[in-house]
Specification:
Helix content is 28%, strand content 28%. It has 347 residues and is α+β, with helices and mostly antiparallel strands.
């Protein structure tokens, strides 16, 4: 059917899903190795609206036009694949996913970090490093999971950091922030409807390694999201709806220490797309009500586990077979009825 579709331009009416995990890379004009995306090509089946979807291979697109398509994130490529389907404007999607946009919202809501600023030149970077009384981080506006950034010590700018900044500043303005030592990272998840109304879906903890690289998500029964973070998240959802975005929304936040000062940062970045946090919340459909879970991305070479069944016993599993039929994602899902038992399973 594929070769015939390529020749004749057939429109495919079945539901398809595209896990285009290179979303930010496409927006930034870069590429993500296709082998990474292939590992996750079935993962959107965790979503209730995509459980019956046929899954596209992100490395082999072209041919048919899809009448119904669920995508990880909206890009110009997605519009080409499903030209008859309504999506938010890719320009709006690109704008609201940009860290410079979230920084402006932080300023608008009065929750930005001290010494945080947008930089447009090496001279501005050198001045920011001199002025900031803390270690610092310099971020690419479309960086993902601690990639595309430089971390520096107080008052110091290394040659490698200066070289990276010079290269990026030729095309982008960059976000400079004081380094906050995180104590608890979490994400809030919303769904914005086409008519501009929105709903809070839930929240989960972000699991990161010592270098700040994302490793997974955790959902604990009875854990409350800080009220200020939820209020800020609701305000962000409203702002995105007014700009014309609709669809899934994730907001990263954290509690930490800026020097000796406790900090709640309710808006670190905006993910106007699906995310592993949103999919972690979807995994609750496989568990008894109120159970805890950990979605973990260990380093390559980790032990493989059997797929998570419906109504499992406490233990460690892989993703449900619907979301990883070939068992190649490398994901570990730990589940248990209480936080203490989840800790024992995780250990």
């Amino acid at each position: 059917m594929t070769s015939l579709s390529r020749r004749c331009g057939i429109t495919v009416t079945e539901l398809y899903a595209l896990a285009n995990l290179d979303f930010e890379y496409e927006l930034a004009g870069r590429t993500l190795p296709s082998s990474v995306a292939r590992r996750w090509r079935h993962v959107l089946r965790l979503l209730p609206e995509a459980r019956s979807a046929n899954c596209l291979d992100p490395g082999d697109l072209g041919g048919p036009i899809y009448e119904r398509l669920v995508a990880w994130g909206v890009t110009p490529r997605v519009l080409q694949l499903a030209p008859g389907q309504e999506f938010p404007s890719p320009q709006v999607v690109s704008e609201v996913n940009d860290k410079r946009f979230s920084h402006q919202l932080e300023k608008h809501f009065g929750v930005e970090l001290p010494w945080a600023r947008l930089l447009h030149s090496l001279e501005e970077l050198e001045a920011a490093v001199r002025d900031c009384p803390y270690d610092w981080v310099l971020k690419h506006p479309l960086g993902v999971s601690a990639r595309e950034r430089v971390v520096g010590k107080r008052g110091r700018l290394s040659d490698s950091g200066r070289g990276w900044a010079r290269k990026q500043l030729a095309r982008w303005s960059l976000l400079f922030e004081p380094w906050v030592e995180p104590r608890r990272d979490f994400s809030l998840h919303f769904e914005i409807a086409r008519d501009g109304t929105w709903a809070f879906v839930g929240h989960c903890q972000l699991v990161v390694d010592p270098s700040g690289v994302y490793r997974g998500n955790q959902v604990l029964s009875g854990e409350e999201v800080p009220g200020r973070a939820l209020a800020c998240g609701c305000a962000v959802a409203g702002e995105l709806a007014r700009k014309g975005y609709w669809g899934p929304l994730g907001i990263d936040a954290f509690e930490g220490m800026l020097g000796v000062q406790p900090v709640l940062r309710p808006l670190v970045e905006i993910n106007a797309r699906y995310s592993f946090g949103r999919l972690t919340l979807a995994l609750r459909d496989w568990l008894p009500e109120g159970w805890c879970l950990l979605w973990s991305h260990p380093k390559q070479g980790a032990e493989a586990y059997p797929p998570l069944p419906a109504q499992p016993r406490p233990g460690a599993y892989g993703l449900p077979v619907e979301a990883d039929p070939e068992g190649i994602s490398g994901t570990i899902v730990c589940v248990a009825p209480t936080p203490d038992e989840l800790s024992r399973v995780r250990a």
